[in-house]
Design a protein that fits this description.
Layout (H helix, E strand, L loop, with lengths): L1 H50 L7 E10 L2 E11 L4 E12 L6 E8 L2 E8 L4 E17 L8 E17 L2 E4 L6 E4 L14 E4 L10 E15 L6 E18 L8 E16 L1
Antiparallel strand pairs: 1-2, 1-13, 2-3, 3-6, 4-5, 6-7, 7-11, 8-9, 8-10, 11-12, 12-13
Length: 275
């Protein structure tokens, strides 16, 4: 009798353990199935949003080539997706400002039996380069509607600017020595402003060791038209305006008014990827 009771108790306990294990496995399987269904539903929602024109991604990186009304620039931009319509941006941009009254003067000279064609900007005192670092937002205004459509976004923001003034050198035939020299403007330099002795501009790297730094701030606003066929590819045309303010007047061309505030419009080609 005792053996039978022990056997019966063991059988019941074993059955209960097996039942509990089966329930645990069943609960785990149900949880995994629910996660799969939730993930599938999320993917379906993303697909639906893409079909409706939303740009769905986690981050994006792009390069841009900008043609300003007063110069040129190259830029790198990084974006992090926040919501369907909003992306947080940061960017770096390097470029150059030209004075509106700059005019290239062609020159022709002889050196070692060869004719050399060159040019220079008369009265130019400095090259004005700049480096910008900024933060902003990209807000989706209109989705693509379909894979071959165009997404329209507004971009705005601002940040810090570093104005870089590099002395502009020209090459002259010095009437006093008869030698060729590369000179820059030095206060009231008669040689620098004598067009009869100017051969052309100086070397491209001449003056980089004399760059002067001027701090400033900048802001921009633009519209971006993204015509990329697929959402993971960023191919866009951007049009906008820039505003910059520096802590001192920036001398570019002699006899022209120096200014601290610069405003221009631009058009840019933007290429990149989304993930």
């Amino acid at each position: 009798m005792l053996v039978k009771k022990l056997f019966l108790i063991t059988f019941v306990l074993g059955s209960l353990a097996v039942s509990a294990q089966q329930k645990t496995k069943s609960s785990a399987a149900e949880a995994r199935q629910m996660k799969k269904e939730e993930r599938r539903e999320k993917i379906n929602q993303l697909i639906k949003q893409e079909e409706e024109g939303a740009l769905i991604y986690q981050k994006q990186g792009s390069f841009g080539f900008k043609f300003n009304t007063d110069g040129w620039a190259i830029a790198y931009e990084h974006g992090k997706y926040k919501t369907i319509t909003n992306t947080r941006l940061w960017w770096l941009e390097f470029g150059e400002h030209h004075d509106a009254k700059e005019e290239k003067v062609p020159t022709l000279s002889a050196s070692q039996g060869f004719l050399i064609i060159s040019s220079y900007v008369y009265g130019k005192q400095n090259n004005f380069y700049y480096l910008k670092a900024g933060l902003g937002q990209q807000k989706l205004i209109g989705g693509k509607g379909n894979k071959n459509g165009v997404a329209v976004s507004a971009i705005y923001g601002g940040g810090l600017s570093a104005g870089l003034l590099k002395p502009y050198y020209i090459e002259i035939q010095n009437p006093n020595t008869g030698q060729r020299e590369q000179i820059k403007y030095d206060n009231n330099d008669a040689l620098f402003l004598d067009p009869t002795i100017i051969i052309g501009r100086g070397g491209l790297t001449k003056g980089f060791n004399e760059i002067k730094f001027v701090p400033g701030v900048h802001a921009k606003a633009a519209l971006r038209f993204d015509y990329g066929r697929y959402n993971e590819v960023l191919s866009a045309l951007e049009v906008g305006v820039n505003a910059e303010y520096y802590t001192q007047s920036m001398p570019i061309v002699l006899l022209n008014k120096e200014k601290k505030f610069f405003f221009n419009a631009y058009i840019a080609l933007v290429f990149g990827k989304r993930k």
